[in-house]
Write a structure and sequence with these properties.
This protein is mainly alpha-helical. Helix content is 55%, strand content 5%. Among the domains are: 144 residues, no CATH class; 161 residues, no CATH class. A hairpin with a 4-residue loop joins strand 1 and strand 2. It is globular.
Length: 781
């Protein structure tokens, strides 16, 4: 199996003639054309060098179209905060599953995810309802020359309430689009049926529990996704209803505002409050059920809740469009201070999440983490904070750019501008972006200095690992040492994430405080400060506004380019290969999980092939493919698992997944997997920035990790290799002779085990003839 970015079956099999033997255009298994029906021609599969062995038949599982095949998926870049917060769910520490803090952790992550949906909908309301319908449509300077605003400036729709109802179609359409995408992607990618036989008992973890990825329902959580989709859809609709009710409340509750609108407003406010209560209850009531495939659907939550929220929104729209002859719009839309409350709520939830993570980390059994967990178990809280910050940046950037576009020739929020501009908090959040970027730049410079020092330290010893080869210039040693030093930077990722998270927290608190105390953007608020501070504040505000706007424009432009450019589409697919491996356990609008299709595919293939032929196979995976391979082996029943060998190379199983996701890939689960799989070998290089050793303990058998492969294979020019050998790093592991040696050794161990272990038998179903004996019981694949 290939890794991130994908490759073609022809490249994987080393033959231009290939055929897909099972699967579809999205994901399928391919063979060389001459091997398509190898099981039916046992006499042609004999290994000429070994009369008692069969020739291995290679197959290639191509899954790249699950993430980068469709150009429309490039627009998922705008859902990046949802994907990031979903990762926080899986970054929980490796504490026992029955620990009380586990439930608290899961609930807090789901609440943070719910707040991001509210933030996205509020951002759409800020753009459509506040900037366009409330401010620009009421300003002759702003509306002049904009013919598309004509219906909102004259006639029946010109009243403020009716303009708001018309503009509310945009956030409602956005919510409906997210619901449709979530439902469609589930049907297309994540609804694969479980394997034909449930996985059998696995070796327990230090706490006495089974590894999470070996549970039969891990890759099939339809019920939770459906329930969360309903809750988040209802939350989006109720957010629009809240904006409309808040806009009318100030007018209706003033003296002479009218009796009927005020009464209906209170009634609708109670209905909206009841809807929010139902949304929170549905979102936090129950988490994932992994002990078995959860195929049931909560009809009330999935259908009644969104429908009821839509009905309430329709009544609120009628209430808002009520004729109010003396109502006019000015300044900003009432209720824009809700962004501050959303920020405060997210900060409080992330703080509680950090406390829950600390409690779980302290409860981790000995040997389940061994000091390898990123950020001491606080990685989930840090990633959730970054998801909230990213959502705030996208919100502020969209609002700032739209405001600048509407008020051409002026500056929104500054005296003399045509419109008041976005809320003050968004301007303060934009002004802290340059400071955050400065922290990242400082970290990058520190990393460069570290690489330079590490390269100098490693250069003298590079030649010693190439005994018997001619010595070259020192430049060759520096090249190899630099590759090793750069690869080791991956281990500094937790420090970077921690630094960015802490800086984001401090700057976010400062922006919230500044907006609350001054009530004005940073530039005008600093007008009374001494010295050059006012000019500095105005400069930072301008840079931040452009930076946040540029980020939004960059994401949209990248998505548009990927729609036309296959290379760009493949690059974006690499991001999703890493970020969408995990099921949607926290946010239903995150990009779909491709592993919920890939893992059942692989499990079905291994179970049915070994059962049908009685043969044995080696499943090998590179990079992200090794993670899929390990996840698929975990899902096998013991009889099938005993006939499967695992070969991983360039694998991030321990280096990335084990440190950031300790509950699923920490030392405990990986050690349990090594005891379940008798034949497992892992190849890695010092120059590989992604792959590394899995570092699992051995029980007297052959070790899993091989010694690091030499890279490059040859130091200098030799008669056999007169041209310089490249530094391969993370790629082309199959070009190393060690790959063929280890594969042959695994096949030999499988053949040896096959002479002592009988093939699994399947009882015939009623009315089914007895299966024929396997033709080649020892054929490896």
């Amino acid at each position: 199996m290939h890794g991130v970015g994908g490759t073609t079956p022809q490249e994987m099999l080393g033959d231009p003639r290939t055929v897909r033997i099972t699967g579809d255009g999205t994901a399928g298994i391919h063979r060389r054309t001459e091997d398509a029906d190898a099981e039916n021609r046992p006499e042609d599969a004999r290994d000429g060098s070994r009369a008692d062995h069969a020739r291995p038949i290679p197959e290639a599982y191509c899954w790249s179209n699950l993430t980068s095949g469709n150009s429309a998926r490039a627009l998922w870049l705008l859902l990046l905060p949802f994907m990031v917060v979903n990762l926080a769910h899986w970054m929980r520490p490796a504490a026992p599953a029955r620990h009380p803090a586990q439930r608290v952790y899961d609930v807090l992550v789901r609440l943070v995810a719910l707040s991001l949906t509210v933030l996205l909908t509020a951002a759409a309301c800020e753009v459509a309802l506040d900037l366009v319908a409330w401010q620009c449509a009421a300003s002759e300077r702003c509306a002049g020359g904009k013919s598309w605003l004509g219906p909102l400036t004259a006639g029946w729709w010109s009243e403020p309430g009716r303009r708001l109802v018309a503009a509310a179609l945009l956030p409602v359409a956005l919510t409906a689009l997210l619901w449709w995408l979530s439902h469609r992607t589930w049907s297309a990618y994540e609804s694969a049926s479980p394997p034909p036989r449930p996985p059998g008992p696995s070796r327990p973890l230090p706490g006495g529990e089974r590894p999470a990825l070996s549970l039969p329902g891990f890759w099939y959580g339809r019920r939770l996704v459906s329930r969360l989709r309903a809750a988040h859809t209802a939350a989006g609709l109720l957010t629009v209803a809240c904006v409309l009710l808040t806009a009318t409340a100030r007018h209706d509750h003033r003296p002479g505002g009218g009796t009927v609108p005020a009464v209906s407003g209170w009634t609708l406010a109670a209905a909206v409050a009841a809807g929010w209560t139902a949304v929170v209850v549905v979102a936090v009531r129950k988490g994932r059920t992994e002990s078995e495939p959860d195929e049931r659907i909560d009809r009330w939550a999935s259908k009644v809740l969104p429908g009821a929220a839509l009905a309430v929104l329709a009544l609120v729209a009628v209430h808002t469009a009520w004729h109010r002859p003396d109502w006019s719009s000015s300044a900003r839309l009432p209720g824009t201070g809700a962004f501050a409350w959303i920020t405060l709520l997210q900060g409080a939830l992330v703080a509680l999440l950090a406390v829950a993570a600390y409690v779980l980390h302290r409860a981790t059994p000995p040997g389940a983490c061994e000091g390898r967990c990123a950020m001491g178990g606080a990685g989930g809280a840090a990633v959730a904070l970054l998801a909230c910050a990213l959502g705030g940046v996208l919100t502020g950037g969209a609002a700032q750019r739209v405001a600048d576009w509407l008020d051409k020739g002026g500056t929104p929020g500054v005296p003399g501008g045509a419109i008041a501009g976005p809320p003050v908090l968004l301007s303060w959040q934009a002004s802290v972006i340059p400071v955050l970027l400065l922290v990242v730049v400082v970290f990058v410079l520190a990393a460069a200095v570290r690489v330079r020092r590490e390269r100098r330290r490693l250069t003298p010893g590079v030649v010693d690992s190439y005994e018997g080869e001619p010595r070259e210039l020192e430049a060759r040693s520096r090249q190899i040492a630099r590759a090793v030093a750069l690869a080791r930077l991956t281990d500094s990722a937790p420090a970077l994430v921690a630094a960015v998270a802490v800086t984001t927290l401090l700057l976010g608190a400062g922006a919230l405080t500044g907006a609350a105390l001054t009530g004005a953007p940073p530039g005008p608020a600093a007008s009374t400060w001494p010295g050059p501070l006012p000019a500095l504040a105005e400069t930072v505000q301008a840079l931040g506004s452009w930076a946040t706007g540029a980020l939004v424009v960059l994401l949209v432009a990248t998505g548009r380019r990927a729609y036309r450019d296959a290379a760009a589409r493949r690059t974006i697919g690499i991001l999703w290969d890493v970020g969408t491996f995990w099921p949607r356990a926290a946010h239903p609008f995150a990009p779909p999980c491709y592993a919920e299709r890939a893992v059942p595919d692989l499990t079905w293939r291994m179970c049915t092939w070994t059962e049908r032929t009685g043969g044995r196979l080696v499943i090998s995976g590179h990079s992200q493919g090794s993670v899929l391979a390990a996840a698929a082996v975990w899902q096998l029943d013991p009889a099938t698992r005993g006939r499967v060998a695992l070969l991983t190379y360039g694998s991030p199983l321990e280096r990335l997944y084990g440190r950031w996701f300790p509950a699923c890939f920490g030392p405990g689960p990986l050690n349990a997997l090594s005891r379940e799989v008798d034949c497992w070998r892992n190849l890695w290089r010092l120059t590989d920035p992604i792959g590394g050793p899995v570092m699992v303990g051995d029980d007297g058998g052959p070790p899993v990790d091989r010694e690091p492969l030499r890279d490059p294979l040859h130091y200098g020019r030799t008669p056999e290799h007169p041209l310089p050998t490249p530094v391969l790093g993370h790629g082309e592991y199959q070009a190393d002779p060690a790959f063929a040696d280890e594969r042959a050794a695994l096949l030999e161990r499988l053949a040896t085990a096959g002479r002592t272990t009988p093939a699994p038998e399947r009882p015939a179903a009623a009315g089914e003839p007895e299966p024929e004996p396997a033709r080649e019981p020892d054929r490896p694949r």
